[in-house]
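Q: Can someone sanity-check these two? First one:
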Amino acid sequence: MPYVRALMLLFTLLPVLASSTFAADPMDNWKPKFDPSGAEFTYILSCVGHPAIEGVGVGYRIRDKVWEKSNGRLYVDFRPLSQLGGEKDVINKLQLGAIQGMMSSSVAAANIAATLGVVNLPYVVDTFEKLDRFRKTPELWQPFRDAALKKNILVTDITGYGSYGWATTAPVRSLAEAKEINFRIAQAPVNIDFYKAWGLKFTVMPWPDVPQALQTGVITGLDHTPIVCNISGKFNVAKNYTELEYAQGLYIHLVNTRWLKKLPTDLQHLLLDTISAESAVARDLTRRQQAAEIEAAKTHQVNFFTLSQRDKEQLIKLARPVYDKWGEKIGSEYLSQVRAALGS
């Protein structure tokens, strides 16, 4: 994990670097070790995430592998850290063809095509093992892959940022204690529906607003993963984490098909094959990274809890109307097929 730790240290030092007259551009650390100006084709790839997250940093590995394999013909211009704007804006740019690719968070992707919301439903694709099975099972993966083709978008692969749970300022060891928390949740229709069904207090809030809201007590909990909470410093305020593990946080790699079809056939295959190979590596690294970030958080006095099996079963029971509602949008037959195949 030395690469990840180096990135974490860099972003800890960003305020200092920014205040220094003589500071170098911190993005220099990720600039390519080659001159991309001679590339015949450029693939602009956006992501809002932090490159210290394995499922985000994969963008740089894809960049370097594609450059090498294409002998400098295709340059993947990877732009993490919301350099091209928030996810809603970037989705519009992708559909219009202003950019060619996007690693969209799974919570935002449901705004593109309802079928993509299947991975956000609670306790459906909720573990690393189920995610692997989902990706490797053609009858489950193909409808997901093709869900946005009518909007000229192809789902090429997925990476992750860990298992969802609750980071809170007060311990949450039961559903009763959870009802005392005001949770920040993402701007995503699926999440809004199941938080309503769970009967929990929540605030829909853009990610950049979270630090101040958490520090001032506007929110007292955060629906997110241990990787993100530790790397982004949320555990500095929210010193408790409930390992709910109701879903996997994913980055869904989307490509504009109109642009893709204009690429020479050999470069199309090269790009898609490289995305697939590196995404598989990133998913494995994410599993390891989550374990490492949990251990790192524990050394800084973050308390970890799990809900009882009874409380988890209650969450599933309360979410039944959400499964019905989203089954109509996703396709009830497909949702049933996914749940049956994954034992969900």
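And here is the second, same format, sequence then tokens:
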Amino acid sequence: MSSAVPAPRKARSAKRVLPGFGLTLGYTIFYLSIIVLIPLVALISASFSLTWGQFWNAVTAPPVVASYKLSFSMSFIAACVNVVFGMLIAWVLVRYQFPGKKMVDALVDLPFALPTAVAGISLSALYAGNGWVGQYFESLGIQMAYNAKGIAIALIFIGLPFVVRTVQPVLEDFEQELEEAATSLGASRWQIFYKVILPHIGPALLTGFAMAFARAVGEYGSVIFIAGNIPMVSEITPLIIMAKLDQHDLAGATAVAVVMLIISFVLLLLINALQAWQRKTVGGR
């Protein structure tokens, strides 16, 4: 006499630690709206008090255009420098053991914790004509502070941790067996780096570049102390915005800020598109 086999029970759906999709999505949209979307909408709407002619004159004045070129060019240069040296620092911290490694690892985060005004004063004292480092360049006829070079130095200082902390965990997860396999196949060091390591850390490098660039574009506190703030020479766009606010020109300040917002948003979109393309290219290999 055969016994009836009980019907298999339906697998219970896994319990979610957080509430369901609808509730969490609602909180996400609400929070991002309060923190990000509404302030940006308020910024754009504040510039509507200007006519198109007034808006155009505010954002295309010669000092403002010069500040655009200076801010974005120095931010780009600083981000490129940080990509190279940030990758090297991350490589050393991941691949080597040496005395004082924890101290070096902690120093990487110092620009995060240091007030920007303190950073600016320290850098200006260091690279000024009578500073510890600046005096040697001054003797060669090279002025390191109170010009575009000083701006680049400040932006490199505040942007370095973004690259290091983005690339470091990716290098830690990288399988060194791939390097050993490439070496056994006769690949040179440059081939191993270019064809094995770089494609793996490339998206992280682009992410670090984007974060360092975005931070540099909006940096104010550490730059004004070392820039010199000379109109048409070393005046950054955030300083122009602050000057307009001091003059109670809120509409003009928001007009310049809107242009900065649009340019930064477009550049970040392009960088994200490049990241997606690189991931797709590497994944398709």
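A (reply): Looked at the second one. The chain is about 75% helix and 0% strand. Residues 80 and 209 are 7 Å apart (CA to CA).
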